Amino acid sequence: MRIGYEKVCLKDGFWKDVREKNARVSLMNVYRRFAETGRFDAIRCEKREKPPHIFYDSDVAKWLEAAAYLQRDYPDEEVASIIRGTVRTIVANQLPCGYFNSYYQVYRRDRIFMERTEHELYCAGHLIEAAVALDACGVDGTLLPAMEKYADYIRERFMIRRDTGFTTCGHPEIELALVRLYAHTGKKKYLELAEFFLNERGRREEPIYDWADHAYDQSHLPVRQQREAVGHAVRALYLYCAMADVGRLTGDAELLSACRALFDDIVKHKLYVTGGVGSGWFGERFTLSYDLPNAEAYAETCAGIALILFCERLADAGNRSAYHAAVERALYNNVLAGESLDGKGFFYVNPLEADAACAAYARSVPGIPFKPLLQRVEVFDCSCCPPNLVRLFAQVGGLIYGEEDGVLCVDQYISSQTDACGMRVCMTSQLPYEGSVGVSVSGEGTIAFRVPVWSTGIACTVNGAQVVPEVRDGYFSLRVAGETAIAIDFMMRPRFVYAHPAVRADSGRKAVEYGPFVLCAESCDNGGRLYDVSIPSLDGAKTVRNAEGVWLEVPALRSAEDGALYRYQPSAKEPCTLTLIPYYAWANRGEGDMQIWFL
Amino acid sequence: MRIGYEKVCLKDGFWKDVREKNARVSLMNVYRRFAETGRFDAIRCEKREKPPHIFYDSDVAKWLEAAAYLQRDYPDEEVASIIRGTVRTIVANQLPCGYFNSYYQVYRRDRIFMERTEHELYCAGHLIEAAVALDACGVDGTLLPAMEKYADYIRERFMIRRDTGFTTCGHPEIELALVRLYAHTGKKKYLELAEFFLNERGRREEPIYDWADHAYDQSHLPVRQQREAVGHAVRALYLYCAMADVGRLTGDAELLSACRALFDDIVKHKLYVTGGVGSGWFGERFTLSYDLPNAEAYAETCAGIALILFCERLADAGNRSAYHAAVERALYNNVLAGESLDGKGFFYVNPLEADAACAAYARSVPGIPFKPLLQRVEVFDCSCCPPNLVRLFAQVGGLIYGEEDGVLCVDQYISSQTDACGMRVCMTSQLPYEGSVGVSVSGEGTIAFRVPVWSTGIACTVNGAQVVPEVRDGYFSLRVAGETAIAIDFMMRPRFVYAHPAVRADSGRKAVEYGPFVLCAESCDNGGRLYDVSIPSLDGAKTVRNAEGVWLEVPALRSAEDGALYRYQPSAKEPCTLTLIPYYAWANRGEGDMQIWFL
Fold it and tell me: What global pTM score does this model have?
């Protein structure tokens, strides 16, 4: 089982800083934008001229959940009073039956639970997650009973009376929320309701958008028969989260093997090198195996987050180092890129290549449906990603450790402290910038360390004595007793990474990884035409360090001359120095070109 | 001046075959499809439940024009009677004022000349071109006076009374048609009307589609100030045709320098290696310099045809070999690819790369706006390209020769005979398959031969005696007298062609040209993943000949192994033999993958 964020205390370092920025800047910044855009007014359930977005409630709920996680380490009276007021408003406006939805109960009361595609249970799910988080963190205990009442009403209507206009929600989320409600309250009925929703999915034709297919919301097949990741990526991964949870809790081998097949399909065929998923703009969806366009990537931030949530649940249901390797790839690249360095701006879409001229052209010419956004913004109409990032960063401590048959697993190298398996573990990590990790352990037990895929070698000492780590299934284990000082050095150097030859967009190209980071080049450092740059070798690459993290200066080549559009001689190449920065830090210095895959 | 198709007789060879297929198959096949789809019924101007497309008239007109060109060499009673009947119907239904439009006069009579974007004058222009062609070919003399009357009415309304809802048509065409009408009748008023339309364009805000900008139909600037090719490619090039004509006929240097700047912008920045133009799906338009995507290319067949029409007119206004090089590139590749080998199917869009799996996916998933078409069809709803191809191939003889200050220029090497500049010239060309050309001349004069850009050397004998050609401005000249036998060998071998390094889509890649042909690989010969194929060298390339023309077998490399999506070692490469065929012949053996640019 994973060791939850509440049992882990972050210490100085990269992620402490991210989380602190998250607490001190992002949380209230997102709140203010949401307040300005009427999200916190909507829950008063007063009729207004302009109805709220159908899933404003989920934005508020995710903000509450994030705020709950941050109160322990970053207590803040303003935040606390917003939480109290918000919870009071929700509870006060809840219908006597337990139902709460700021859109339906005010504007379409006659259509409650009649419209499958309108995110009603999706909003309910996020409210339930918020209630669980607030109670678990000891921040508020009043939303939980209210949301239990709502869950009971959902159970009554969907499972008992079955008088609703649909059986499974068009946007999965309620399923995983009900499992969390069960795990927190111990009330089996919520697990049964989650299982009911899973079992019903894909069993019959259910309503869907007229422009969509049933794969779009994963109702094309009964869940146990699903083997390929299809459709809207966030919907898919939220559904898979619940499948993994229910599979584990009910010992349902069919559900778990479906989950493992879905994970394998994603990491073998549908994952960007940044850990982004859902390459398709149309339907924000998984497309074909190896269809991973760079400039046109969708790779929504929420999808990267959902992949992490799925991997963590897979690990709970039977650990594999591959799950944490995927978490690491998504966390340090696609997900981290979702937020600006100042913690105020957010990306919804995370391209792997940017052409500012084309973006400007697209924005200037009418009729072009997709206007690529090359700078982060503070809020979107559909603003699911910002609060989702805030709540993920708030609980990043939960990604570090796991417990397998009494063995303590270290899966991410993030400076932190925890007590588990009868040991107190205190880790000081130089990651992501360097590979050296110090772990001091008090107590007796076994610790398994995950070997990052990017590591080119391991040096390890225990109480000063060299040990030769024996790596099995991506981990090496040490048995300790008393006071033990472990020093590990995962050798970290910039490396070329190549895509499978079937990836059309990357063929003939390579990317550069440095530790957990995928690097990119920006035109503000290197000028334009970055797609024309070739990197013959990484020998002579120089590491520089600065605000944006690790920089790399690499000897490279680019075409010298201009001239005819077509010619019978290749362009002459000129040596140049290419400056690379971590992908997550791109687009923080104005709009420009960006490139990950080089010749 | 160009020497018109009517003065040139094609002889055996590649283009004779194309034109013969055009006469024997395509002409009547297009007619039948157009008849089935109501295009020839529409001109009866009877009210029907389903109104005709607003520019059905132009389809009928282009068919008439093509039929006119073919009657001399391929007289056919069925075609002749269709021409007679069609002309009779048009004349019979013409309004007393001279107006004819099968949509407006039947369905929107109150809106005649009120709606700028609805192609009214575009249809008129094609009817005028048809009338001129029918009269010039001696096929029918009755449509001409009728269309003169229509032109007079247009002049009355737009130029004299000025009581119309717009001044310049949203789709240029009338301008070039009026110049043809002037050239054929000698009536200056038509040239003046053409000049009027050119002068008025871009002078003031005129109505445009709500989704479009003024650049879309080239009304963003007065025509003499235009230097960059922008907007809808066919509209642009039809406009530029009229600018070149009027510039030449009125000695308007400003118009001609605008035309030359526009040509240079196209060939330097916006031309596909196939000669296709208008890379943008949205608005079928010119986009940014070097924005030449391959799989997503629009490159409409009509735009390639329009480029040829523009180049021919530029040559009339002051010859440059570059114009004919562009004609050759477009003619043998983008344009020829517009028609299937059996002469029955047509492409509207001409991609330079095809992925059958992605196309099938796009067709199967709702919500994706563009469903790439990888097989030619017999008719489209908007079916401008098929009759445009038929009328171009019908007059291909007009692309071969020109006359500059008494010098006879040979610009395309197509087996043919003509009398010009006091000489009878009879050319037997092995092009496009081989570079040897035999020219027998009777009479005294100077002949200038254009040196194709792909030629790697020239061997030439005059009456058996070696001569060393002196190439100046892309031509070499020979002075002849009496009976002269000229033998030229343009050395032809497969060559790599490279794109300007700013062309993102082609960076790190090369294409293969063989004479005037751009070659491509298809999956039916080579299997899939063609984008992964690299061609280290063309040494050892073997030429094979067959139905699809020249084939080439080239030693190449492709990735051997499969495996992880991302890896730290590049894939091993395996030798293979790559079969290349001329691009124009692609997609004649079922739907599959196609590639032009290789690693």
Answer: 0.95
